[in-house]
C-alpha cells in the first residue's frame, strides 16, 4: 500500500493504465510492464496509486466496444487525469509513461502516442506465406481523387521529436481527461466507433478516434523518441537476410 496522500479529484496527475487482452499477453509486454511499474513506484507513483489497471477481455470482434468501455469507466469511475492505452503485444521502456507525460500538455498536446509500427502484409511469397514490412503508425491528412478526407502513412519523421500528426494508433497512447470529455460532449460515448471514408471503407477504430478529436480542433502528437516494439508473427526467408560484416562482430564462427 502507498502512503501517498490521495490526490484531488481534478487535475490529479495520475495515469489510469488500460489494456485489452485475448486472455494471453506477449512476454515482452509482461516484462516491460513489470519494469514500468517498478520504475513508477520509485519515481512519481502516477500509476500505482490509481487502484490498478483496467484489464478488459477483448475478442477480435469487440475492439471498438472494449475501447469505449475503458473510456467510460475511466471518466465515470475514476478522477484520474490521464489514460494510457497499451496493447498487450507491445514492448516499451520503463520510463515510457513519464516521457509521454513530459511531452504532453492538457491544452496544447492532450493526446500523445509513442513511436509504434504496424505489420503490413505486402504480397504472397510463393511458399504459402506473405511478405511483411513494418509501417510507422504516423499519419498525415490525405485526400483521394474525389476530395474525400482520409489518412496517409508518413514514412519519414525526425528522431526524438514531438510531432503533430493527423492520426496515430492506440497501441501506446496517452489521453488527457479534458480531451475525452470534449469528444463525449460532442459525439457521445462513441470515441472509437468506426467512421467511413467517402467511398464507404471503414476507418480503423483508433484513427476514427483521431478524426473525432480533429472535429474539435484537439491535436494529436507522436513522440518519436519514445520507442516501442510490436510482437508479430512473420515469415523469414533469404529475402530478409543480410550477412553481418566483420567490423560489426560477425564473420565465421559467429
UniProtKB/TrEMBL annotation:
The cross-references to SUPFAM superfamilies, in alphabetical order and at most eight, read: Nucleotide-diphospho-sugar transferases
Classify the source by domain of life.
Answer: Bacteria
The protein's matches in InterPro entries, at most eight in alphabetical order, are given as: Nucleotide-diphossugar_trans
Show the Gene3D superfamilies listed in the entry: Spore Coat Polysaccharide Biosynthesis Protein SpsA, Chain A (3.90.550.10)
What protein name applies here? Uncharacterized protein
Give the species this sequence originates from: Streptomyces chumphonensis
Lineage of source species: Bacteria, Bacillati, Actinomycetota, Actinomycetes, Kitasatosporales
